[in-house]
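Next up, sample data:
>
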Amino acid sequence: MKKLLTLLMLAGVFTFSATAQEFSDAAADSADVDSAQTEEVYEEPVEEIAEIVAPVEEAAPSKGFHQVVKEQFIDGGPTFMGIVLACLILGLAIAIERIIHLNMASTNTKKLLADVEDALSAGGADAAKEVCRNTRGPVASIFTQGLLRMSEGVEMVEKSIIAYGSVEMGKLERGMIWISLFISLAPMLGFMGTVIGMIEAFDAIAEAGDVSPALVASGIKVALLTTVGGLIVAVILQLFYNYLVSKVDSIVNSMEDASISLVDLLVKHNLSK
């Protein structure tokens, strides 16, 4: 009986130990699976985040407009790009000087005519000359020349106004020919740089004996940059030139209208004597 109980106890111990071992193995396997799944779950977002963040970190800083223009100017070649830049600087300098001069030459012709009429009525020709001398601008200068010939008759006044008006018109248009020269010269220099750049590209092809984009890229880039530079300079100067031409035309029209009004005023003054 005791042997039977001993055998049953041994069998139960072995059975319990085997069951416990199986349970522990199953728990370990389950833990391994959970840990593997957890690692996969965390590895995928980390990799995706890394892929998203990496391009942001590797992105190059953006260049400013000044830096881009400087690089393109250097790539275009200092020889022709320097000459084109000199055309732009000289043309702008002359244009700005002309704009200042023409704005100072503008005169309020209605006020000047009223002052001359009052001076003629109060103090005669001498008072009217003094008013014109104290007023700047080509219109006042023409009035002065006309009043100087007032004693010789209205016809001499008209001839004096016409002759001196041509002189004042030449002064207004002074320097315009240089702006026109730079407008024509800048694109011509750009096209010359284009031709030279293409010649350099074909020389490189002839020396290498092969045609490849990298071989001719530098020459073609120089050709295009010089052309663009010349055209940009021409466009900028053309805008200033057209403004100056319109300003000169406006002043000349004012001179002509004021001259006619002055002659009528002198005729009226002589008749009133």
Notes: The two ends are 170 Å apart (CA to CA). The CA atoms of residues 65 and 71 lie 10 Å apart. Confidence is low (pLDDT under 50) at residues 1-24, 30-60.
